[in-house]
Each structure stands twice: as structure tokens, then as C-alpha cells.
Write a structure and sequence with these properties.
This protein is 35% helix and 29% strand. The chain has helices at 15-38, 42-64, 147-156, and strands at residues 4-11, 66-72, 75-81, 88-91, 95-101, 119-122, 129-134, 139-143. Strands 1-2-3-4 form a four-stranded antiparallel β-sheet, with helices on one face. Strands 5-7-8-6 form a four-stranded mixed β-sheet, covered by helices on one side. Strand 2 and strand 3 (75-81) form a beta hairpin. Helix 1 (15-38) runs antiparallel to helix 2 (42-64).
Amino acid sequence: MATLIYKEKQRYNDKMTLSLLIIGTIAAVYGLVSTVFNNMEAGKAIAYTLIALSLGGILWFLRRLQLKVVVNDKKIKYKLAPLHDSSRKISWENVESCKIVKTPLLAPNHGSKHHFGGEKRLTFYGRNGLSIRTKDGQNFFIGVKDVDSLRSALKGHELLLEKA
């Protein structure tokens, strides 16, 4: 039986993006209602309906996104629901290097965060989390919200292979 070291569940919670989607959806519904009651123009009504449905669908999808990260003494498990049907696993035996990355508070708003070629990124909190390189050459970045707790948990179990 594996010993649990760290566990975290995250939801997509970018308040700015969610707020803009809500405002856009409300504006599209308002435009639809005012078009129907004033002009009865079918083209505008269809356009407002499509915009409202699109923005509402994106909002619904983003609110359903959930990342679950579990680290135990045998493997690292992660699942990005609803995109992953089941948990993905990285065995500690297959890990070549592993380090914890914690960026400054304002760094997630910097454009250079988007250029990490060939890396599979799963994060809602910018470049804060676990950077993993496997023995077969794959690179993963699994984001966590509480980086300090992850660091202390991994140091306590001596699983951190590379210092950040």
C-alpha cells in the first residue's frame, strides 16, 4: 500500500476570465431580448443567441475543470477532469529529475511563461508546482496552489531529486 504524501484538488478560478464571460453572456442575452421585443430582426436574434450560447458554454466548461494531484511514495497521479477519463500516473522509478518551481506573485502575468517547449502543462496557478522529466525524455509540469506544503512534504520523504 502506498503512503500518501500530498493531495490537492483545484478548480479553474480565474476571476477576470469568468467575470468577462458572465458579463458577455448577460450582454448577449440582453441584446437578444431587446432585439426580439423591439425589431424582431431574425439575423440579430440568431447572432445574439449564438453568442450567448457560446459564452455560456465556455463558462460552463471552465467551471467544470478540476485538477486533482496526488503524490505518494510510489507515484505521482494527476487527473484533469473532464478532459481525462482516468488518473494519469508517473512512477517515481521513471522520474529522471524532479523539482519544485515557485514563481513570484506577478510572474504569471508575464508573457514568457508560455514558452516551455515540449512540456505537458497542467496548471491553474501559473508556473507554481512540480516540474518533472522522465527517463524517456517527457517533460511534465503539474501545478499546485500550495507550493510550500508540497516542498515540505517531498523533502520529508526525500523524493525531491533536484533542488529548485
